[in-house]
Structures are given as C-alpha cells and as structure tokens.
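Figure S7 source data.
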Amino acid sequence: MPIRPDRLLADMRALAAIGQHMTGVNRPAFSDADIAAREWLRNKMMNAGLAAEIDCYGNVYGRAINADRTVVIGSHSDTVPFGGWLDGAMGVIYGLEIARCITESGSQSCGIDVISFQDEEGTYLPFLGSRAFCGDNLTAEIETAKSKDGQTLKDAMSKAALPGNAAVRLDPRRHAAYFEAHIEQGPRLESSGRKIGVVTAIVGIKSFRLLFRGQANHAGTTPMDMRHDAGGAAMCLGNLLNQRMPAIGGPQTVWNVGNMRFEPGAINVVPVLAEVFLQVRDISPAVLAEAEHLVRALAAICAESFKVDVEVECLHDTEPAAMTPALAKLIEKAAAELGAPSASMPSGAGHDAMIVVRHIPSAMLFVPSIGGRSHHVSEDTSDVDIVLGAQVLLRAIELFMANGAR
Ligand code: GLV
Ligand code: MN
Ligand code: MN
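Tokens for the predicted manganese (II) ion complex:
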C-alpha cells in the first residue's frame, strides 16, 4: 500500500507554517501557536474520517470510528522554543497519512488511532500528555508546574479553555500497540549512510535545579578568601561535573548544564545567588543513580569551598525504557523489504514512546537528521527520507496487522 508523498509533505509544511520561525517552528506547549496547531490537527483528523477531540490536557486524539482494536500512531506537536519543524510533528503527520491510507484501502483488520501528545518538550511538565494518557496521577504535579518564566500550567490550561474537556485514556483492550516515528536528532544515520533507525531503548533522564546562596558584596573590595560567592560555586560545579562524570558513565552517558543564572547579575557584585539547571541521560538506571549521587556530592564540595549554601532539587526523573523487540523487528523487516538500509540504535532523546511502552507494546523508527542538527531551526530531513520513513512505518504496521494485531 503506497503512502501519498505529496499529501504527506503538504500537511507537514502546512503544520510547520503554524508558529513558523525562520526555517523552524516556535510552538511551545500551550502557546497560541501550539493551540492553533492542535485545532488544525483536529480538523485534519476529522477530514480523515476520525472522531477527533482535544482533551483536557491538550492531547489531540483521532479515533478510528469503526474499529474496536487499533494501532496508535503519533508523537507530539509542541516544540522547544525556536525549534525545528520535524521534532514531533513528523510522527503525528505520519499517523494522519497512514490512517488515511488504511481507510482508503478498505482494510478491516485493525484501525489506526492518531495522537499528538501535549508538552513532550517540558515547557511546563515533560510528557504531560502521554503520562496523562497512560493514567499517571498528575494532580500534584499540575498544581505546582510552572514554565521557565513563571507561568503556571494551571493558568495555561485554563487560558486554552481545556479543563472542561474529557481526558483521553489509553485502553489496552482497544490499543494493541503504539508506533512513533521521529527525526533521529543526531548524526549516526547520516554518517553511516543508513536511512532508518530502529530504536532499541530510550535513555532515562534526570533533571536537576541547584540553588547556591551566598552573600552579595563589592567585587573590588572584598578579598577573594572572604567572599561567599554563589557564582564561583556554580561554575566550579560545572567544571567538576565535566571532569568526574566520564568516570562513572559509559561512552553514551551525556550531561548538559543548560542554564546558569546569577543574581544580581552585575559585573561588579559578587553573586548572592546562582541557579543552575542540568540534566544527565543514560540507558542504565545504575549509571543514572550514580550520576545523581555525584551531582549531590559535587554540589556540596563546591558550596563548601566557596562558603555558600546549596539546595539540590531533582526536577524530573524519567526512567530508561526498552522498546518492544517484536515490534522493532517488524520495522527492520519492513525497511529490508523496501530496500532501506537500517540500523538499530538507542535514543538519546526522550520520547512519548518511553511512557507508552510501560503499558502496551511500542516501537520507534528514526529518519536521518541533516547534519545531525535538532532542537534548532536548522533541523531538517530530505523529502525523500521523510517519504521513505512513512512508507517503512506503514509497511511495519501492515506486517503487524497481518500477524494479528490481537
Ligand atoms: C526531548 O526532546 C528531549 O529533551 O529529549
Ligand atoms: Mn524535542
Ligand atoms: Mn520530539
């Protein structure tokens, strides 16, 4: 069954125009552009013959109407600030296109439900949509979640007029499996000349906020050994992390000090406060546990040597997740049938599939990233590779249905 490349690409470009920023997209969760994109998706899903709704969390869900057993295909349509046009959106439009193809073919074996999860990127609460879909109790987290600029999630949800809507829930009796396609967001496929990545596992992510508190003072008159320098402690932590982290992890362990903020933030004042946001990622829960231990120990060492106090808060802790091997094999087989060279690989990025796989069999397929770029407006994949990815995913789902999607 062929997908329709023109229709697929036209829909992807139309979605990218909502919140377009240069060659990318600025569509953080619950922004006006994000909500407009979700309305657009709901209409597209309805036009594809699905019963479509936006739920109270912002998930857009298109339900195959004449099916009681379905495959869910999707991803997310929110973006990081000033992000790329494919991260998330491509997987959702693949779902839409595959749902149309299966409906047009008249196949009775299994329906396709399509979903765009909300806030995968964590503008307010990472994986809000997929966690809510999977039935996590988020009441307490929703009560306290805020964006970086202090907006509360509750206000964002109210502003989007969503709280009155019903929640969409995963139903293992209906939903036989979840498939998510995504841009690789790294250089491996391109550099190896492979066209399809078959995801074996998704890294766990621990995110921390550290707050060093010292004493503001004159930067010219206060001797170095009499300072309580919160900024010095924060920079010391960044340096020590870079020195010590390699010893506890493997070659795939990654960490990132993504933001550091000093108060009062003046060149001639010793910082009274330094706020640091950092993340560690790995496939191994043991490495992640050791990494957390290291972050806390180094924070204490730096605080002591700069004579300041420190608080370490673990903001989010998402466990690593293995994808379902039997479904990964179907993607591999589909790629082979279509002559697309594939490679098995772990994902260093987080994805909604890591939440959904806790409940139903789930698989992910990657397409190559040009120049390995992502989370930036330069993110791109060639049209040929986008179309091939969709065709491989459709074939994998056909194989799944032929095996009895039961
Ligand atoms: C999600 O895009 C992540 O940060 O991995
Ligand atoms: Mn992303
Ligand atoms: Mn993504």
